[in-house]
Amino acid sequence: MPLHARCLAAATIVIFAAGCDKAKPAGGARGSAEAAEAARSAVPQLDLSTRPDILFQVFGERDDPRMIPVAAIRDGTLLPIELSNTGWRRFDGMYLRSGTTYTLYHDGMQAGSVSVRQGMWEKADDPLYSLAKCEQLVPLASVAVTGVPSSSYTIEYFASGARLGKQVAGQSMPPADVAATAKRIGYALGKAEEISQSTLDSLDFRAVALPTGATSRPTIIASFIDPSAGGGDANGGESAHVFAIADAKGGSAYTVTFDHVVKDPTSPRAEYRRYVDHLDLDGNGVDEIILEGWQEAGKTYLIILSYREGKWQETFRGRSSWCLDAKG
Question: Quick one: pLDDT at residue 21?
Fold first, then answer.
């Protein structure tokens, strides 16, 4: 199973496993939740009275997907959603009630719609999901999607009530040229980090060309990753992870505008990157690139890159946990 499909399936399994566990958290969780509530009250809270636009991620099995809030959108800026427990329940009532519909986005454009089937606390005594030893949770919604391919088993989209996306005009690029350029970029990065071409050739390779609008030519993404997602020994003890983005202006050659390299996937601190989607979130005419980051056996999180001063720079990072209780 491809890495992206495996990640979605794993996420779906977590949701359903958590949703079946309706028992109250074990001792100690309440104190943790109270500490988390106190900590959240000390940081700026999202002003729900203005009803800000929200960016959601829609994922899971196509026949029973889920939707989770990622960020608020205000004046073209992505803001983390910080709320008290009461605030999150108000959020659920405002944005995640049955029948509420949002536009789906994929590959930089509108891609259908998503409708809420059940909000997190719509059934007051029966929340949509729970996690062991956790009292305060980011709300999820059960949703239905329309206008997306029926052949896909799992889905991964973004949704919002904001008007996002556009049709980017620009040059196209033959798939063979995309793959050749992506490999050239990856091999050069590998050589600079003393990662052999043979090691890179043993990894799963993906090349994607995106009409981001950063330049008149497509943005190219190159990814070399161990199929074990960081196992370290799947290739006879040799492995690595190379992720790169490249752009070109006019007739010039493609050059690296973002890179992330892991030389030692056995390290517990090794972090990985996967391309997810692209979408103009700030309304400046250039799409943001959305990645997934994760550590081996660790939690995943979304990373949003914006094109600034000729480079792709991280401008937003999502939560790595659905549990809002204080840790430790």
Answer: 37
Report the Cα–Cα distance between both ends of the chain, in Å, rounded: 36
The pTM score is 0.84
Residue with the two structure tokens 């988390």:
36
Q: How confident is the model at residue 3 (pLDDT cuts 50, 70, 90)?
A: very low
Using a 10 angstrom Cβ sphere, with 0-12 exposed, 13-18 middle and 19 or more buried, the burial of residue 76 is: exposed
Single-letter code of the amino acid located at 29 = A
Percent of the chain with pLDDT over 70: 81
Q: Report phi then psi at 206, rounded to 5.
A: -140, 135
Q: Summarize pLDDT for 97-144 with one digit per residue, the tens.
A: 999 999 999 999 999 999 999 999 999 889 999 999 898 999 999 999
CA separation for the pair 108, 88 (Å, rounded)? 29
The answer to whether 56 and 159 are in contact (CB under 8 A) is yes
Say which residue the tokens 């950063």 belong to: 214
* Per-residue pLDDT at 238: 65
Could you give phi then psi for residue 11, rounded to 5 degrees?
A: -65, -40
CB 273 within 8 A of CB 303: yes
